[in-house]
Design a protein that fits this description.
The protein is mostly helical and 231 residues long. The chain is built from seven helices and no strands.
């Protein structure tokens, strides 16, 4: 008796993974940079905490809105292409069949087999066949704006909570160093996890994220010390 053997592919999670990784990285980097920069200006612990919480709320909403608008634009384009393809299938079915056959011939099938495949797939689900093979639209890679927005906002909040919790725990005189250290540790974990989930090098993923995070926090600290203004 044959058994199904489901295969798990990394591309199956690319939609939410991109938004989640981007949100968590941005949350950690931006809020940690805010805290470090304001701390370098000589602000009180209360001000640091207020800055961190405000950064979480504003950043999470900004990430969610930006991700939703961006992915919704992609979804609108996909829907418009599908609507046009649906009309063409209704008005010119023979031309669309020839078009599908030509696609399969360009991929290496001979004319007779390409025609046979095109006929079979058209009889099963013509729109799905054209969406996949002509437009490159699949269920796995379809734009899902609400999913992307929620994943981005939640990930941002989780990432940003690390520097905010550090402000609550660390002594005021060492809050900049402690925040930077915990944020870098978080970024190393996030970068490594993203690399592993995407099939890339864990070490490279960790180091590239940590590098940009360290640069952002260093620049923020420099600005805070330069102006020395209590926020």
């Amino acid at each position: 008796m044959s058994r199904s053997h489901p295969e798990l592919h990394r591309s199956d999670r690319i939609g939410w993974l991109r938004a989640a990784v981007l949100g968590a990285n941005d949350g950690t980097i931006s809020v940690a940079s805010l805290v470090v920069g304001v701390a370098a200006s000589g602000a009180s612990q209360h001000s640091l905490l207020l800055t961190g919480v405000a950064g979480i709320v504003a950043g999470a909403m900004s990430m969610a809105a930006g991700e939703y608008v961006s992915v919704q634009s992609q979804a609108d384009t996909e829907n418009a292409d599908l609507a046009r393809e649906r009309d063409e299938l209704h008005q010119e079915p023979d031309h669309e069949l020839e078009e599908l056959s030509a696609i399969y011939m360009s991929r290496g099938l001979d004319a007779a087999l390409a025609r046979q495949v095109a006929v079979q797939l058209t009889s099963h689900d013509a729109l799905q066949a054209h969406a996949r093979d002509e437009l490159g639209i699949t269920d796995t890679l379809r734009a899902r704006p609400v999913q992307a927005a929620l994943a981005s906002a939640l990930a941002f909040t989780l990432g940003a909570s690390v520097p905010v919790l550090t402000v609550l725990i660390a002594p005021r005189e060492s809050v900049s160093i402690t925040t930077s250290a915990t944020a870098l540790a978080m970024l190393l974990v996030l970068g490594g996890a993203a690399g592993r989930a995407g099939g890339a090098s864990v070490l490279k993923g960790a180091l590239r994220v940590a590098f940009w995070g360290a640069l952002a926090m260093a620049l923020s600290a420099g600005v805070g010390q330069l102006f020395g203004t209590v926020v």
